[in-house]
Amino acid sequence: MRRIAILGSTGSIGVNTLDVIRAHPDRFEVVALTAGKQVDRLAEQCIEFKPAIAVVSEAADAARLEGLLQQNNISTQVMYGPSSLVTAVTDSDCDTVMAAIVGAAGLVPALAAAKAGKRVLLANKEALVMSGNLFMQAMNAGGGELLPIDSEHNAIFQCLPNNFTKDSSSQNAHLGVEELWLTASGGPFRNTPLDQLASITPEQACAHPNWVMGRKISVDSATMMNKGLEVIEAFWLFGLPLEKIKVLIHPQSVVHSMVRYRDGSVLAQLGQPDMRTPIAYGLAWPERVAAGVKPLSLTQLANLSFSEPDLSRFPCLSLAFTAAQSGGAAPAVLNAANEVAVAAFLDKGLPYLQIPVVVEKTLNAIATGKADSLDSILQIDAQARKVAQDFIKAL
Ligand SMILES: NC(=O)c1ccc[n+]([C@@H]2O[C@H](COP(=O)([O-])OP(=O)(O)OC[C@H]3O[C@@H](n4cnc5c(N)ncnc54)[C@H](OP(=O)(O)O)[C@@H]3O)[C@@H](O)[C@H]2O)c1
Q1: Residue span of the structural domain in which 238 resides
Q2: Counting atoms of ligand 1 from 1, which one is nearest the CA of 151?
């Protein structure tokens, strides 16, 4: 029986994780659930799964959650605030942590899970983008297993022989891996005339053609910042040089990513665009369990197409490559500026086309040093947020 803590259980990944767990009560037990603000949804989850610990962001929400649970005779311990996210990982007796908080808020508890030697199912790519070196060191020191949940990285993980382990860089060279090909749908604006992009609304940006996801990652998919963050994520996870990590537009989202080998072989993982597949893979690894996903029928697909991304349409992708090449704290600055810009866009306080402008200005304004401690990363994250906010105010 695996004991699971879900960081971000009320979000899209969290809800899908509980859906897989619900189908396998003989294999998985939920011991901790954490949310930000969605108290009612978390209460329902606690009533169904009876975790030992539940966490929300604010004290008032914790009091309300406690009341709802008492009415239903649920003895879950309710906590609140960022430090309680760490407690949920360290004190819940979990052996597996689904890291599915969106954005930088997920970094500290994900690092705590890494240090504590848990099996970390990593959906929160921003944590790895901000702290790649530190995070991988923490995983090595903790001795746990890191399983990628992002569908692309999960696909690559499945296409690597015997999967990758901690010393992935030397192992991948040894195994003859030449290139990783990350596929990208191109989002809702892949073919939108460029002169129409100026008036894009949050609702349009969140209407992804293939995937149902949280609002922040949906906007990131529209700008392709998501793919840029994934390039950085792949760099840390699989230990290949950046020039060996390629992006391919694949509008059907059926091939989730590929590995090209030295002997000419290309291995791909295919499936429905349904996150329950990589989630089930991570939960049950190295076994496979039913995920509730409908079978893939290749004969019902008209075609599978692939093309190079158009960087003039997707400047965020270029910015991510630039930040990745700069290294150090640059990816943390990129991530922070993007989070601020996307939040402003979702609040209707920033036009869609200004998202890359804010990110680029912030990257240019901050002298980035090393990202070798949590304190230095959190400091540069705070600085970049302030700079990005100032740029937005000045617009
Ligand atoms: N959705 C996908 O298909 C998908 C695919 C690949 C990777 N990912 C990655 O997985 C992560 C989660 O994505 P998502 O789409 O599931 O996002 P989402 O639907 O927006 O859910 C985010 C979760 O994080 C919680 N949260 C947000 N801010 C928080 C804070 N400050 N403190 C504590 N908890 C906080 C939310 O709580 P409340 O809602 O209760 O406020 C919610 O439970 C992201 O890093 C994303 O890039 C997602």
Answers
A1: 158-186+224-300
A2: 6
